[in-house]
Amino acid sequence: MQAHESLPAAPASSVDEDSTATRRDAGTGESSRANRGWWDRNADEYQIEHGTFLGDDRFVWGPEGLDEVEAELLGPAEELAGRDVLEIGAGAAQCSRWLAAQGARPVALDLSHRQLQHALRIDGGKVPLVEADAGALPFLDGSFDLACSAYGALPFVADPVRVLREVRRVLRPGGRFVFSVTHPIRWAFPDEPGPEGLSVAASYFDRTPYVEQDEEGRAVYVEHHRTVGDRVRDVVAAGFRLVDLVEPEWPAWNTQEWGGWSPLRGNLIPGTAIFVCERD
Ligand SMILES: C[S@@+](CC[C@H](N)C(=O)[O-])C[C@H]1O[C@@H](n2cnc3c(N)ncnc32)[C@H](O)[C@@H]1O
Known about the structure:
27% of the residues lie in helices and 21% in strands. It has 280 residues and is α/β, with parallel strands linked by helices. The protein is globular and about 45 Å long. S-adenosylmethionine binds at residues 1-2, 32, 35, 39, 54, 89, 91, 95, 110-112, 115, 133-135, 150-153, 156-157.
C-alpha cells in the first residue's frame, strides 16, 4: 500500500524530489536495493500518515480496511493460539501484534531497518523481528504453520515465484499463506483518487515495472505488475493450491483516501486482491 503512481498521471509531490517516474525493466537485485532505501527513507512519513488507520495492533489487509477479525482468512481467530506465524513485509508489525494478542507466535520480517525500528518503538521488542529479503528467508524448512503479508514484499519483487517458493519451504505441510497486493486492474488506471483515476490510461497487459529513478538512472523505488492470471500461475508454480481470491469491497464506513485508493474508485473497481494459498 504505497507509492505506485501509474504513469502518466503521477502527482509530482508523491515522487522523491530528485527522482523521476518511468516504466522500465528492473531485476531482483535492483528492485531489492531500491525498495530497501525507499522504505528506510520514507518509513517515518508512512507511519505518521497511515499509523492511525493501521492501528498499533490491528490486522488490516488493505486500504479498504478489511480486518482479519471479520475476514478470518488465516482461519478462525480462536484457532490461532499456539500457531507459528511468519509475517512478510511486516512494516511496523501491526498485524503480528494482533496475531500475538490471539495467542499466536508471530515473527515479523521486513527488508527495511527503519520500518522495523517503528515496530520496536510501538511495542519495545515484544514481537520478534527479522531484517531480511523475502526472496531468501533465513529460516529452516517447515518452521511455520501460517504465513501472511498485507501488501508486504509481493508488490515489490521482480521474481514473485522465488518468494512464494521460499514461503512454501518454511511452511509446514497443511500450512496456509495469505497475501494481499494492489489489485492488478489498478495498473490500467492513473493512480489518482478522483475522477481522473477512472479512465483507462495504460495497458493492463503491460508488465513493465513502475520505476522511480535518480538523475543517474538508478532505481530508488520499484513496483512490479502481474496480471490476475500471472498471480494465479505464480502461486501454482510455487507448489501452492489457490483456495480463494478475495476482492474486498469498499465499505460505507471508510471515508478515508489512501493514495489512489478512495471511496469514489473503491465503489466502482477493486483496489486490493488477496490470495489465499495452501500447501499440501
Ligand atoms: C506497504 S508496506 C506494508 C507493511 C504493512 N503490512 C502495512 O500495511 O503497513 C510494504 C513493506 O514491504 C517491505 N518490503 C518491500 N520489499 C520487500 C522484500 N523484498 N522483502 C521483505 N520486505 C519487503 C517494505 O520494507 C515495507 O515495509
